[in-house]
From TrEMBL:
<protein>
    <recommendedName>
        <fullName>Pyridoxal phosphate homeostasis protein</fullName>
    </recommendedName>
</protein>
<comment type="function">
    <text>Pyridoxal 5'-phosphate (PLP)-binding protein, which may be involved in intracellular homeostatic regulation of pyridoxal 5'-phosphate (PLP), the active form of vitamin B6.</text>
</comment>
<comment type="similarity">
    <text>Belongs to the pyridoxal phosphate-binding protein YggS/PROSC family.</text>
</comment>
<feature type="domain" description="Alanine racemase N-terminal">
    <location>
        <begin position="56"/>
        <end position="258"/>
    </location>
</feature>
<dbReference type="InterPro" id="IPR029066">
    <property type="entry name" value="PLP-binding_barrel"/>
</dbReference>
<feature type="modified residue" description="N6-(pyridoxal phosphate)lysine">
    <location>
        <position position="48"/>
    </location>
</feature>
<dbReference type="GO" id="GO:0030170">
    <property type="term" value="F:pyridoxal phosphate binding"/>
</dbReference>
<dbReference type="Pfam" id="PF01168">
    <property type="entry name" value="Ala_racemase_N"/>
</dbReference>
<dbReference type="InterPro" id="IPR001608">
    <property type="entry name" value="Ala_racemase_N"/>
</dbReference>
<dbReference type="InterPro" id="IPR011078">
    <property type="entry name" value="PyrdxlP_homeostasis"/>
</dbReference>
<keyword id="KW-0663">Pyridoxal phosphate</keyword>
């Protein structure tokens, strides 16, 4: 399926998108009320397989953070859209695509870092003027089909894969900035009783606390407030109540997507 790069949108489509975003932002605000200090989570509309015109419509309405799942789609869209968009890449990034990702000047945040190899390739291919924020992806559900590193427990050490990657980024990749952790929870946990804690969200929160402990023990005290990216269209309000700093919402804003050919 070719990416639709036209920036022309109808007033009706813009109104529809703005209404959808307004509803999501209201739910984010409501879910954030009990957070002290009050700080609504960041909304990242995920425009996977949707036309560039949808992004332009929301950009014209004042939104700046957007996310994509496919690196080639992001590489196609970014040059035709305004360069002050803060792009988030939320799909798996293979090592042979790291150079392409580094070539996107307004890539703001890679949410799926999970290997030292990719970190080193990004470090190599980013220009001296670029700093790329990164989340480390954690496989909180333990599903084979999902990417990410194993979560942490109170017995975890600096030699475990996640702290090893975090420390490598901090010590060896000055063009990368470790901003937080990200997870894609299981479908079952995201659609179960919303009154109960989501085990994937609890796991990521515990992993963040354990990683902060390890980093502090290793002399990196500034890493205590790592962000958490968890929650999508089905469960973002619950994710915020459980501590998410950033939510990734696609279908609820842009509508159902056709299957990628």
């Amino acid at each position: 399926m070719e990416t639709d790069l036209s920036l022309d949108y109808t007033p009706e489509r813009r109104a529809e998108l703005e209404e959808n975003v307004a509803e999501v932002l209201a739910e984010i605000k409501a879910a954030s009320q009990d957070i002290t200090p009050f700080k609504p989570a960041r909304l990242v509309p995920i425009s996977k397989i949707k036309p560039a015109s949808d992004i332009k419509a929301l950009y014209d309405a004042g939104h700046r953070h957007f996310g994509e799942n496919y690196i080639q789609e992001l590489a196609d869209k970014a040059p035709v859209l305004p360069n002050d968009i803060k792009w988030h890449f939320v799909g798996a990034l293979q090592s042979n695509k790291a150079k392409l990702a580094a070539s996107i000047p307004n890539l703001h945040l890679l949410e799926t870092l999970s290997s030292i190899k990719v970190a080193d390739l990004l470090q190599k291919n980013l220009s001296a003027e670029q700093t790329l924020n990164v989340y480390i992806q954690v496989n909180t559900s333990g599903e084979d089909a999902k990417s990410g590193l194993p979560p942490l427990t109170s017995s975890s050490s600096p030699s475990d894969p996640l702290p090893e990657l975090a420390l490598h980024v901090i010590r060896n990749c000055d063009r990368l900035h470790l901003l937080g952790l990200m997870t894609i929870g299981s479908w079952d946990h995201s659609h179960e009783d919303m009154s109960k804690p989501n085990p994937d969200f609890s796991c990521l929160t515990e992993t963040r606390d354990q990683l902060a402990r390890i980093l502090k023990d290793e002399g990196h005290e500034s890493k205590d407030e790592l962000e958490l990216s968890m929650g999508m269209s089905a469960d973002y309000a619950k994710a915020i109540k459980e501590g998410s700093s950033s939510v990734r919402v696609g279908t609820k804003i842009f509508g159902e997507r056709p299957k990628k050919q």
